[in-house]
Structure formats: structure tokens, C-alpha cells
Amino acid sequence: GFGLGIGWWVKKGVGGKELPRASFLQAQAKGGEERLEAIALPWPKRIDAIVIGGGPTPSANPLALEEDVALAAELFGASSVRLFAGGPGTRAVFVSDLEPRGEPLMQAIGRLFAPQGGRDGHYRPARFPLHGAGTIEMLEMALARALEEGEGALTLYIAGHGEGGEVPKESQVWLWGEDTIDAKWLARHLDGRKNQRPFRLIATTCYGGGLAEFVFKEGEREKGVAEDERCGLFATTWDEEASGCDPDPDRAKHEGFGVLFLAALQGKDRAGGEIREKIDLDRDGQIGPYEALSWVRINARSVEIPITSSENFLRARIGKNMSAEGPLEIMPLPSGVWKWAERELPEQVALIRALNRESASLEKLSGLLEEIETRKREHDQAMDKMQEEFSKRLRQLSRVALSRWPVLDDPFHPDFFALIEQEGPAIRRFLEESPLALRVFEAEEELEAMASVDLALRIERAGWRKIALAYETISLAWALAQEGGPDWQRYEAMRACEWGKR
């Protein structure tokens, strides 16, 4: 779609408003354009982690994703394979400009007739060495080598973009070159292998919770849980977006799940402060992936609802999905279950205690969830209506502009640049002052305000939703523990894998 922003260019004029600068980028850029390093790292003899990141196109590789991949590669060490965007020898990282560049009129024409991401930034090489590009071919090669030759647990860390579907198993992750992978793809690469190496997936993408289905044979619930040891930790549910794809060169502003999760694994907060004792829920002196996820789930004020494969497995047994929306049946906990949960599910208890500051009863919690969902639906409808109005006004503006300047939408036409030279001032006045343009600006500003309200609603909903899901997880886990048997053993093994205890 067109998106927001045409009004900014024509209203600010040449040069626009100076934006705050980031010292780290200034220091790196003083020597001019950075040199491309096309030499790939040699692959490690033993692969214990595969870190892959980036999006399908250059503009989908923002600075924040580079930061996540670099931090993950550093954390997993020399036995990790690093795959990112177009790979070595490419300008793989998109960085927002510190101040506007380009001629404002041309920018406005582009936004009106040929909207495209990436025009408000520049591209540079990755600032850490890579083993290869973030392609499906490189991922397949790394998986095959790691699964055939390695020993001990293998971790796959994905930092990128996701796309949702109608059901969880349709969630996809985009890789460089516009290829996608999903739970079924991953399951097929793990099913039936000779080396039963434990496998842990960590995904920070939008709609990433749908990948939790990979723990089932062929990625299909009805075929049962795979025999080998698999688990996963995800930034959010299969039907919710995630944050963390920021091209802002001020890295201190990056607050996505990935950077917070990786910091927590090292026992630190976002600013680098030591908080190991707060993150270490089982007090064993070590921080595992589940403890890091729990810390982010409690402390990040964001739209994400982080989940794990074991939590998804509990709901799969009763035909439910981990979801950011829809009704929740919050059942009262039987007597004695809370004490059991303090011992067996300390992360769920810690979340409820931290987030349920109002000490809302289960009955009140259900009412709060219903109320926020109603407000969200009503706001969604209002936003959809305003988006339709914005698009209508934009079409009217473009039709009138083309009736006066027929080649204005085609910069490849031989008359285009002569038109800009001769009629530029008149075109600029039209886009700044015509009643049609002013109506577009009004609708645009209204959409921007509504987007801020939508974000606040989603954050509020996520907080209450996380509390409700924690209660539900305790209830479901208690019921499964009473049954015992193979499914309980599977659940315990999955949790041990998530905690990093195996």
C-alpha cells in the first residue's frame, strides 16, 4: 500500500528538519563509504548454532536485525555459522538517514505514484564477518552439515520477518531472495535423521509462534510429536506481529524481543547492567533460554506475547492455539496447584506476580480481556474506514494531477524531466496547497494518530493476555501431570530443552 508520509515531504520543504545524530554512526562514516569485504569466513569444524537473519529484499534488512545477528553470533561463539541477508560483499544493512536527502518534490512524486520502502535511508556492508548469505540454500547446507556431523544440542536462531496465515502451521519466515520456510519445511529436515541431536529453535520474527508446530511429525499435529528431541522459543504468537525491525542508527532505541532476549541470556538488561539474580528463576547460577524469554515476557512493554513449544503442545492436546486474540477460558486453579506451580512452573508464577499488579481475580481478568478486545475491534473498524477514506482521497489527488501532467507518474518517459524543469514550481504548489492535497494530509495525520492509539491498545492487551495465558498454562500443565504417561514425559523433555538443561 501507499503508506504514510507524502505530506511530510511537501510540507517540510528542501532540507526538512534536522534529526538527532547518532555518535556511533558518525564515527564509522567519517572515512567515507565503507569498503566491501567479500571474503566469507571458513565454516567451523563443529556447528553448535546457526544464526540466520535479514529479510527478502535490501530494504527489509534494517540495522536492528544486523544487531541481533551480531549479538547472537557473539553469544554462540566460534562454533556458530552466521548467515545474513545477501552475505559477504554486499551492502546488506539498511540504515535510516540522519537527515532527509533528495529533492522533496521528487520524493513526493515517488510516494504518490510509486511507493517503495528504503528511500529514507542508505545501505552499507555488515560490520561483522559472515559465513554466507541468509538464503534457503545456505540454511539447508548448514543444517545438513550440523545434523550429520555434530553432537550435543544444536540451536537455530532466526532474526527476520514473518508472515501469518489462517492457522498456525501457515506462518512463514522470509529469507533473502524471497524464499520462505515454515514449520513443515523445518520438520521435514529433521524427521527421520540418523543423528538424534537435540534441536532448539529460537525465532524473533512476526507470527513466529506458528513455527512451534515443527515439533510434530511433518509439522502436522494429527501425526503426533516427533520422536527426537525438539523445542522452540518464539517472540510472539502465530497471529501477532513482533517489534525489533528498526533502521534507526541510534541503537540505544532498539527494544525488540531479540536484543532484550540476547542481553538477558548474558544476565544483563538492555543498558548492560548486571541483573543475573533477577533472571535466574531456578537459582542454579545459570541462565537458560526459557529464563531469558521469561524475563523479556515480564519486562518488555511491547505488543509481543512470547511463547514456547511446550506451551503450544499443551494447547495442541486439547485442540487450541496459542493466540493473541479470541476467547480464553480461565478456569479456577484447584486447591494446592499454586504451590505445585511455584515448584514446577516458576516462570508462569513469576509472570503472574509481576504483571497482575492489580491482583485481578480470574473473573475480573476475563472481564478486562473482553473489554480490551471490544475496544480493539472498534478501533480496528475505525482505522479500516479511515484507511479507505485516505486511499480514496489519494486516488482523487493522483487523477487530478495526471489530468494536468499526464507523464508525472512515469520518470522513464522522455518528457518527464523536461516536465519537472518547466512545471516543477506549479506541481509543488499543487501538492502543497490544493484542497485535494490538504484533504490527503488531514486523513494522513488522522491515521498517524489512530496508529498511536492502536499501538497503546495492543500493548495493553498483550499485558493482560500474558497473565491469562500463564493461568491457563498452569491449569493445563497440572491436568497433564495428573494423567502422567508419554505426553507428560514429552512435555517435561520439551521444557528441559527450552530451559537449556539438556
Concise overview:
This protein is an alpha/beta fold and 502 residues long. It contains 16 helices and ten strands. The longest helix has 49 residues, at 435-483.
Q: How many β strands by DSSP?
A: 10
Radius of gyration: 25 Å
Mean pLDDT reading: 87
**What is the beta-strand fraction?**
5-15%
Helix content: 40-55%
Uncertain parts: 1-32
Shape: globular
> What would you call the quaternary organization?
single chain
Number of H/I helices: 16
Q: How many angstroms does the end-to-end distance come to? A: 46 Å
Structural class, from secondary structure content? alpha/beta
H/E element sequence? HHEHEEHEHEEEHEEHHHEHHHHHHH
Tell me about the biggest sheet?
8 strands, mixed
Describe this structure in words.
The chain has helices at residues 6-12, 23-29, 63-76, 104-113, 136-149, 183-190, 257-265, 276-279, 289-299, 309-316, 337-344, 346-355, 362-404, 416-433, 435-483, 485-499; strands spanning 49-54, 80-84, 93-96, 121-124, 154-163, 172-175, 179-182, 199-203, 230-234, 307-308. It has 502 residues and is an alpha/beta fold. Strands 1, 2, 5, 6, 7, 8, 9 and 10 form an eight-stranded mixed beta sheet that branches. A two-stranded antiparallel ribbon has the order 3-4. Helix 3 (63-76) runs parallel beside helix 7. The radius of gyration is 25 Å and the shape is globular.
